Amino acid sequence: TAGITQAPTSQILAAGRSMTLRCTQDMRHNAMYWYRQDLGLGLRLIHYSNTAGTTGKGEVPDGYSVSRANTDDFPLTLASAVPSQTSVYFCASSDSSENNEQFFGPGTRLTVL
Amino acid sequence: GQNIDQPTEMTATEGAIVQINCTYQTSGFNGLFWYQQHAGEAPTFLSYNVLDGLEEKGRFSSFLSRSKGYSYLLLKELQMKDSASYLCAAMDSNYQLIWGAGTKLIIKP
To answer: How far is CA B105 from the centre of its chain?
Structure first.
């Protein structure tokens, strides 16, 4: 079982360009999350989805959008990247019947120049 | 507001015991999680406490006091591979995790 996969592993992006970070899970978890992790700060929630077809805003949603068309996929889109979006992005999933333990993907390291 | 506090960095000796403390303030409470994160890798689950008391799992134990908004992670018989960051996270009333910045644990021979 793969668990959660993310693509790409890393990316350098010019400011103003758009990009979609991909996330897929094969555990049939109902909830999925996108976090960013910056040095000296805790994981910060960008967007989440409690079930397919629904999404919600987290702590730092500005500049990002998500969709949840099905259970497995939860892409994160940056419409017009800015240097402050340089970060490591983690996708995670959880099942409310399993203590809501979150399982994380390997991360995407994004640099916006 | 919601807040998680934990030390930024700790140093310990191989074979010894270390305790990493965490205090939390959240809107509602649905449990306390500890995760381990090696440099350049994703966080991995260590423990979950929702009731007061100590949960033991091999060399790792986690304690919770809900009345004090306090938890600790205890690591025994430290090994070099335990060098990592340890993340404390509290689940709020909306079942969202509020994360601390992490404690970087350095193990010396």
So the answer is: 11
Q: How far is CA B104 from CA A15, A63, B70, B89, B109, in A?
A: 32, 30, 19, 15, 16
Q: What is the C-alpha to C-alpha distance for residues A30 and B18, in angstroms, rounded to an integer? A: 36
Interface of A to B at Cβ within 8 Å reads 40-45, 48, 58, 90, 96, 99-107
Q: Specify burial of residue B64 (Cβ count, 10 A radius: 0-12, 13-18, 19+).
A: buried
Q: How far apart are CA B74 and CA A47, in angstroms?
A: 32
* B16-42 tens-digit pLDDT: 999 999 999 999 999 999 999 999 999
**Per-residue b/e over B7-17, b at no fewer than 16 CB within 10 Å?**
eeebebeeeee
Q: How many CA atoms lie within 13 A of A64 on its CB side?
A: 25
Asked if B99 lies within 8 A of A58 by C-beta distance, the reply is no
Q: Computed from CA positions of residues B1, B2, B8, B12, in that sequence, does the dihedral angle turn out positive or negative?
A: positive
Q: Please tell me the distance in Å from A110's CA to the nearest CA on chain B.
A: 13
For residue A41, which residues of chain B lie inside 8 Å, CB to CB? 101
For the stretch B63-89, pLDDT in tens is: 999 999 999 999 999 999 999 999 999
Whole-number Å distance between alpha carbons of B106 and B22: 18
